[in-house]
Amino acid sequence: MQTCRLYGKMTSTVMVQNTMPVIPVKAPNGLRPAAAMTFVEILIAGLLLVVVFIIGWTISSSFTGVRKVRNYETAIFLANQAVEAIRAARSHELGVDGDRRKDTLLADFSSADNLFDKNGEGFMPVITVGNIEYKRTISIQDIPSDNKEVGSGLKLVRVNVSWRASEDGNLVEFELVTTHCDQW
């Protein structure tokens, strides 16, 4: 026991203990005290971490899949927009590949400097949606007739929409092929 003096007065008595290393002693039931984690507890904690990681990876993959599907839906919409405009037009208004006329629907799809393109009502060859740039190309070809005297009135229409995939940057292309029949 030691006595502490402060300004000549006795203030308190403090007990000092020896600090010796503590040796683990078995509990009365014969088991050692729980001072650390067992191997089974470490395995369970590791398994829980793996499960959490797999759940996170699955959610991340599903977001990538949703983005990929949305890109395809946009490409399908752009291809269908072109096909519907072609179906609504008369055959002589369509034009064909190699035709240099500026008053055809094919010329409108191939150019962004048409009068209607300035106000958003025309057809643009390159469309940006979000951060993805879609390039739409249209090809129209006359289908020859078996009868030399009468034309077939059919045109083969190909609409290609291409873009760079956001997840890996690879070029992806969607192609829609149809025919147009002049029944006018």
What's the number of extended β-strand segments?
A: 6
Q: Class by helix and strand content?
A: alpha+beta
State the domain count: 1
* Rounded average pLDDT: 78
Tertiary shape: rod-shaped
Spatial separation of the terminal alpha carbons: 118 Å
Question: Describe it for me?
Answer:
The model has no long low-confidence stretch (mean pLDDT 78). This protein is 33% helix and 26% strand. By secondary structure, it is α+β, with helices and mostly antiparallel strands. The strands form two sheets. Strands 3-4-5-6 form a four-stranded antiparallel sheet. Strands 1-2 form a two-stranded antiparallel sheet. It has one domain (40-181). It has helices at residues 39-88, 91-94, 105-110, and strands spanning 2-6, 9-14, 126-129, 132-142, 154-164, 171-181.
Please give a quick description of this structure.
The chain has 184 residues and is α+β, with helices and mostly antiparallel strands. The chain is 33% helix and 26% strand.
